[in-house]
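The protein record passed on below.

***
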Amino acid sequence: MKEKSIRKDRLNWRDLVIFQNPAGFCFSLDVVLLADFATIKPKDKVCDLGCGNGVLPLLLWSREPKAQYTGLEIQKEPLELAKKSLAENGEKEKGLSQNICLIEGDLCRASELLGRGGFSLVVSNPPYMPKGTGRQHVFQQIKIAKSEELCTLADVIREGSALLNTGGRFAMVHRPQRLAEMMQLMAEYQLVPKRLRLVEPAPKENSNMVLIEAVKQGRQGLLVLPSLVVYSEPQVYSKEIEEILAGRNLKNPGK
């Protein structure tokens, strides 16, 4: 990883920074929406399956600094960037480095590596496309992040459930085209969907993302929230998206 190729970006949430490789996979709106959507509590033990460059643990920490976070990532370069971001942010944010732990490992073996039933919240922004479908990227890091080269949707949901204690929550962002598959897998692994929200690029356009939160061995009862519209008009974010990007769920907004 060449240092000159690394970019330092600033997050609006608590004014944190994130290091990214522009030639690799950089985070996008979907992970910010997931960080805003997930239910997070002060005593939570949280695991991010496939944490990449570590942006999701940072965003969630911004919302709830008292929770404990573990990020699991199989690729060395994104994990190095995640650790670099953690170190830099930790210099100005007391407790951040103690509350976020980053581990190299295969999420397909997450429950073996991290233990079964030890977490109260599992989050994931997994690869969306089945292996061999969609655009085929030459750069392996992007290919792994976007398509199921190293893990499948079934792997993510199975391991997410295994990591959770009874009553624990599983939150994920994915594509609506695979919602039926998600529901089937969640039922198989004792996850009961409780909250669901579709994301539309613009008013009256078909949804291109879905946010879903399930509870392990929870009671039946699904709340379908109003759709979230990204652009109110061309190149103009909706009011709600602007609020999310500014960190509307922060207990202590950025300086």
